[in-house]
């Protein structure tokens, strides 16, 4: 569907993407960076994100599904794309054809996948072996299985090629003891594995901000920090250099002066304590602005205005100090005047993490690139 009459929009600052990428690349000058653009680039719009990161020097992309990788191929990017999840075996045929790298979570997965591969295709399926060093999601935990997986790849070298090996951390965002244990386990397994792999990677955003550049791994996977969001549970100094990429805006679609005692929205949970102005904004939970944001403040012309009454599917109401005209901009995430609302603040209010706030912004909200970096 084309959305020509939806006043809500997510503005994507491509210059901020470029600068955030460079900050991480400067911390790790020796490493190749794969940018996590799964879930429509964390809700930012994959197309709007891919171009500036390639321009900034990204070596490739990480996604969750083969379909997401195909979308990127469709835009004409021929960089490495790694699918991070345990892909359906039959998707391997497409991955081979379109030169999409897959994660091998087990020996059994490789044995199943090989059935779908074409030995007459000069492109082999590229795989990255996943090591489960403590995340408990996917991957191999024993050196024997890694060696067997490697042997299996060798035995099927007409169809498969080993391109990388990696692990994923569960608690890098907390920088705790468990994180250091996981690092040790990964190092032990990666050292025990005798073969040289082209790409060895373990760092996500949090870990890449914590660690100095080293020679043990030669690549990393950058996600949330690229989007200017802190990866840490407790904010740290370094992140202040990162610029938020996404702003979310909508408009006042209706305004009225209500008298004391007037009730607002489903459940009539809000009663006006005095005569006041109530504005209706064209955004709701179907756009990704969660129902539990009731009570949170939005910005109108640099002034905080609370959401009153329940957030409905497509509209919500705010209490405003004057009779704004229809079409007045409302900022849900971003700057207005001297004030600002961050995705982190919205997440704290909703008792979730910024990743969820951002990826929940629905397809109905157009993503519009600003401060453009030309392709
Ligand atoms: C999503 C994801 C990343 C990126 O994580 P951030 O915390 O956003 O940097 C890296 N690796 C894997 C396996 C992932 O699933």
TrEMBL record:
Q: Which SUPFAM superfamilies match?
A: Alanine racemase C-terminal domain-like, PLP-binding barrel
Taxonomic source organism: Xylocopilactobacillus apicola
Q: What name does this protein carry? A: Alanine racemase
Catalysed reaction per UniProt? L-alanine = D-alanine
Q: Which residues bind substrate?
A: 137, 313
Keywords in alphabetical order, please.
Answer: Isomerase, Pyridoxal phosphate
The yes or no answer to whether the keyword Isomerase is present is yes
Q: Name one GO cellular component term.
A: cytosol
């Amino acid at each position: 569907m084309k959305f020509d009459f939806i006043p809500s929009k997510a503005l994507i600052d491509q210059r901020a993407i470029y600068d955030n990428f460079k900050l991480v690349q400067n911390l790790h000058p020796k490493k190749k960076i794969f940018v996590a653009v799964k879930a429509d680039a964390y809700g930012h719009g994959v197309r709007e994100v891919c171009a500036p990161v390639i321009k900034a020097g990204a070596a490739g992309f990480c996604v969750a599904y083969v379909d997401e990788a195909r979308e990127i191929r469709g835009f004409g990017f021929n960089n490495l794309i790694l699918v991070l999840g345990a892909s359906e075996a039959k998707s391997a045929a497409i991955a081979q054809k379109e030169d999409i790298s897959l994660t091998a979570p087990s020996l059994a997965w490789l044995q199943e996948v090989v059935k779908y591969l074409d030995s007459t295709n000069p492109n082999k399926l590229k795989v990255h072996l996943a090591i489960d060093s403590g995340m408990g999601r996917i991957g191999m935990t024993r050196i024997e299985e890694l060696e067997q997986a490697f042997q299996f790849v060798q035995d099927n070298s007409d169809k498969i090629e080993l391109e990388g090996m990696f692990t994923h951390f569960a608690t890098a965002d907390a920088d705790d003891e468990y994180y250091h244990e996981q690092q040790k386990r990964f190092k032990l397994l990666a050292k025990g594995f005798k073969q040289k792999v082209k790409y060895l990677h373990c760092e996500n955003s949090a870990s890449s901000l914590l660690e100095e550049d080293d020679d043990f791994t030669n690549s990393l996977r950058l996600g949330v920090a690229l989007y200017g969001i802190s990866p840490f549970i407790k904010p740290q100094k370094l992140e202040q250099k990162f610029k938020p990429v996404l702003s979310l805006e909508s408009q006042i679609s209706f305004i009225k002066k209500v008298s004391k005692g007037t009730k607002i929205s489903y459940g009539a949970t809000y009663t006006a304590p005095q005569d006041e102005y109530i504005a209706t904004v064209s955004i709701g939970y179907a756009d990704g602005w969660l129902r539990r944001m009731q009570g949170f403040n939005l910005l109108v012309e640099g002034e905080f205005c609370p959401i009153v009454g329940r957030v409905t599917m497509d509209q919500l109401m705010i209490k405003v100090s004057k009779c704004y005209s229809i079409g007045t901009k409302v900022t849900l995430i971003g700057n207005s005047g001297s004030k600002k609302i961050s995705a982190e603040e919205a997440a704290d209010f909703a008792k979730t993490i910024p990743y969820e706030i951002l990826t929940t912004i629905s397809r109905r909200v157009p993503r519009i690139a600003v401060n453009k970096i030309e392709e």
